[in-house]
Amino acid sequence: MNLAQYQAGCQARVDAALAALLVAPRGELERLYRAMAYSVVNGGKRVRPLLAYAACETLGGSAERADGAACAVELIHAYSLVHDDLPAMDDDDLRRGQPTTHIAFDEACAILAGDGLQALAFEVLADPARNPQDADTRLAMLTSLARAAGSAGMVGGQAIDLGSVGHKLDQAALETMHRHKTGALIEASVRLGALASGRSDAASLAALQDYARAIGLAFQVQDDILDVESDTATLGKTQGKDQAHDKPTYPALLGLPAAKAYALALRDQALAALQPFDTRADALRELARYIVERRH
After folding, report:
1. How many CB atoms lie within 10 A of CB 25?
2. Is 53 helix (H, G, I), strand (E, B) or coil?
3. Residue 156 to residues 80, 82, 119, 152: CA-CA distances in angstroms?
4. What is the chain's alpha carbon radius of gyration, rounded to the nearest angstrom?
5. Closest by Cα among 103, 148, 95 to 121
6. SS3 label, residue 166
7. Which terminus of the chain is less hemmed in, N or C, by CB atoms within 10 Å?
8. Is residue 268 domain-resident?
9. In which domain, by residue range, is 28 found?
10. Hey, which bits of the chain come out as E strands?
11. In angstroms, rounded to a whole number, what is the distance separating the alpha carbons of residues 80 and 251?
12. 269: exposed, middle or buried (C-beta count within 10 Å: 0-12, 13-18, 19+)?
């Protein structure tokens, strides 16, 4: 399959749905909505929506059934970036090649924009007009996303990350942090897409979970590699921030060659997990390769 064409189609689809969600009303809330839209509709690879669509299609579901899942995971991702960039967190001025939300607006507005995006994600999943599943499936999707986004997942991982600055972590501790901070939402993206298909079963969900765990960690390993090897213009965010902040990373722990080898091993684990599926899983296969080959 042509991954570039698939990406472009999915990106256009989710971007249109996100833009419709974030139309700014006139009046007192206009600036808040503009900050929310600025944080979302500003480019980005849309990896998490792509995974949701691809997982849905792997099990024979249509793209339309995954629109709600795709929007929800991107809204959570965007909110996390807004808050991660704040001065009290990672203190970044650049995101996707543009000023971060707290720079383009102000710190208080950025905090509220992130809060609004987080709440909107759950509203989308709960709304049968935007997420056309039966009530039990919508509840299962809400539960999965809440767990992945909260203290047991992404937020917990960020807390571990902030507490690890200046400390030496072994590989097991580093992986625990990243399975929470980065991996949990990637795993949720795959699970939500699978649930949205209406055709998931225990065996397919288990295989897709194995796939998602592998690519979730591979994504972070490659991010760490790019922070060393790439540049600010290519990344769209400040290069070298991890080293400057003395954060534990895979290249620092394993060395750059071993970190690259580990990313490839995780890719192979992901591909092996997809063996039970036919060619409808080809998008997931190509995304596993893309995650460890990307340059930004």
Report:
1. 9
2. helix
3. 12, 16, 18, 6
4. 18
5. 148
6. coil
7. N
8. yes
9. 3-290
10. 94-95, 98-99
11. 24
12. middle
**Which CATH number does the domain housing residue 97 bear?**
1.10.600.10
Exposure string for 189-218, b = 16+ CB within 10 A, e = fewer? bbbbbbbbbbebeeebbebbeebbbbbbbb
Count the alpha carbons within 13 Å of 171 in the hemisphere toward its beta carbon: 10
Q: Is residue 296 part of a domain?
A: no
Alpha carbons 84 and 195: distance in angstroms, whole number: 29
Q: How far apart are CA 9 and CA 245, in angstroms?
A: 37
Residue appearing with tokens 């079963």: 201
Distance from C-alpha of 25 to C-alpha of 279, rounded to nearest angstrom:
44
pLDDT string in tens for the chain (296-residue length): 899 999 999 999 999 999 999 998 889 999 999 999 999 987 788 999 999 999 999 999 999 999 999 999 999 999 999 999 999 998 999 888 899 999 999 999 999 999 999 999 999 999 999 999 999 999 999 999 999 999 999 999 999 998 888 888 899 999 999 999 999 999 999 999 999 999 999 999 999 999 999 999 999 999 999 988 866 555 555 555 655 556 789 999 999 999 999 999 999 999 999 999 999 999 999 999 999 999 87
Cα first-last separation, the chain: 22
Rounded distance, CA 85 to CA 99, Å? 10
Would you say residue 295 lies in a domain? no
The two tokens of residue 66 are 């995954």
